[in-house]
Design brief:
This protein is of the alpha/beta class. 39% of the residues lie in helices and 20% in strands. Strand 6, helix 8 and strand 7 form a beta-alpha-beta unit. The structure holds S-adenosylmethionine (SAM).
Length: 286
């Protein structure tokens, strides 16, 4: 496969969208651990293990400064974010030196019986993930196409677990590729928990994305949207969207509360919103 990609997550690590996505991911991992039986986690667009927030790229974009650093400064006491702050090792009044990517968060959440697979297209990022994450034999990193991995590795033997699909949205047909791959993965494994991240760039684009999800006619879809700029401000990323399929019990209320706390700390004053809504019912009508 030819790699023609400019995207480097180091510019965006620890921004408000990473925060929103990781808060949802940690809630789902925590819910899976409510039962003793083993689970499997597949992270199809994994990135690396940790991101150095002192790197020139992170300084240049300033996204972590306006994201995670601001959240620590203003929101460290928010009860709904306690799980998240513990997982990223945030401390009151301290600057965060490195930000954990999804593979680091997932692997830290595994128990002896659980397993995870991280798939990443860029060899350097995949190798960094392999180097930086303590495996203890429970995790594997593959260099390759995340969409192909959904076909190759689902359903897992464990029959319970989650799939995170977090592509860079650099190409115009990324949403189409993601929807097709997700629909196929869901046919193979309808009981898995899925988390799909999507950008919010304008009000029209957001409702188009919701309609495309709904059109799949898959039950139990929950959308958690957090915008920190006006939808139509013309700023590249106005908001962060997370589609959860088969969300764990309590996710709606939890995400509403956690996202409201993030919004209070990092949003442009008076702008944006939090909207956590069920997109499809428990069962689809025939
Ligand atoms: C948004 S970043 C992932 C961030 C990571 N999931 C996290 O939460 O820390 C998207 C990643 O997908 C990788 N990528 C792009 N196209 C891919 C593909 N087809 N298959 C797997 N990885 C891909 C990029 O190199 C980048 O590291």
């Amino acid at each position: 496969m030819r790699i023609a990609m400019n995207y480097r997550h180091i510019y965006h690590a620890g921004n408000f969208a990473d925060i929103a996505k990781h808060v949802g991911l940690l809630y789902c991992l925590d819910a899976l651990k409510r039962k003793d039986s083993a689970f499997f986690a597949l992270d199809s667009h994994a990135g690396r293990g940790f991101y150095d927030l002192q790197a020139p790229e992170a300084h240049k974009s300033g996204e972590a400064e306006r994201g995670i650093q601001r959240l620590i400064d203003r929101g460290i006491d928010e009860p709904a974010l306690a799980l998240y702050f513990a997982a990223i090792h945030a401390r009151r009044g301290k600057r965060l030196a490195r930000y954990p990517g999804s593979p680091a968060l997932i692997s830290a959440g595994l128990r002896a019986q659980d397993r995870a697979l991280f798939v990443e297209l860029l060899p350097a990022e995949a190798r960094a993930a392999e180097r930086e994450i303590e495996s203890l034999g429970r995790v594997r990193t593959e260099i390759g196409d995340g969409y192909a991995s959904l076909k190759a590795f689902l359903p897992p033997d464990e029959r319970r677990g989650l799939v995170l699909i977090d592509p860079p949205y650099e190409s115009l047909d990324e949403l189409k590729s993601m929807l097709q791959s997700f629909a196929e993965a869901h046919r193979r494994w309808p009981n898995g928990m899925y988390l799909l991240w999507y950008p919010i760039r304008s009000a029209g684009q957001r409702s188009m994305v919701h309609s495309r999800f709904e059109a799949l006619r898959i039950p139990k879809m929950l959308c958690a949207d957090l915008a920190i700029h006006p939808d139509d401000a013309g700023i590249g990323l106005a908001g962060s969207g997370l589609l959860l399929v088969n969300p764990p019990y309590g996710a709606d209320g939890y995400l509403q509360e956690a996202y409201a706390a993030i919004h209070r700390a990092v949003a442009t004053p008076g702008a944006g919103y939090v909207e956590v809504t069920r997109l499809t019912p428990e069962r689809m009508a025939q």
